[in-house]
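Dear colleague,

Thank you for sharing your sequence with our group. We've completed the structure prediction you requested, and as agreed, I am returning the results in plain text so they can be pasted directly into your records. Please verify that the sequence below matches your submission; if there's any discrepancy, let me know and we will rerun it promptly.
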Amino acid sequence: MPKVDPNYHPAFPQPDDPGVLVWRYMDLAKLLGIVMREELQLIRLDQLPDEFEGMFPNKAQDAFVEWVKGGGGSPTDADIEMHLKNFRQWSPGARGSTYVSCWRIGNFESEAMWRIYCGTNNGVAIALPYEELFASIPRSVAFVGQVTYLNFQEETFQPGNSFDLAMHKRHEFDYEEEVRIAKYPGSGGISTAIPWPTRFIQKIVIGPYAQSWYRDVIRDAVARISPALASKVEDSSMRGIR
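Please find the predicted structure tokens below.
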């Protein structure tokens, strides 16, 4: 279970081992955008493929009503309905104004992530220790932490913070072991960019199913754009398994 740092945002649990690696799987164009601009692109929550991103679990409204009733005083039905009006606006509001960058935590590559995000013939990933990713994102820019997975039919979280909507997902996605960078609010477009120094990158890993020409293109492109990163390009460790 990830730990909650009392000095950090409570919606962003932290891993027990800050030295564990985090991975960002992508295509060549996205890698070159990061290297050339020293920026990370965060996508708006409602643009992600899971239609339940930023949605409340089924029992969240009941939990919210109980929270309102336990807040002191004796709220009337009209008071509760007024609060529920705000509650019903939180999810659409968060989906349209919260931006995230999705990473996977773990010291080994994920074959599933290669296939999902990169297909079978190309792709690349950047990897670095979690603590380095955390250090690279000032709190004034965005927050970083592990996603919490729930049974959305039976479990819920306490409503009240837009980041909670971005940092909880259905348990069917727990294979992703996701770490997220989240920013609220963003630019208003479908994505927003934040500064990100590429010196934090520990390695640039070429997908295990990439053909030799694609591997050469990645090495040449990185060397031309950022010579300091050239030595960090390497083949997938999966290529050595036969």
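Summary note from our side: The longest strand covers residues 99-105.

Kind regards,
the structure core
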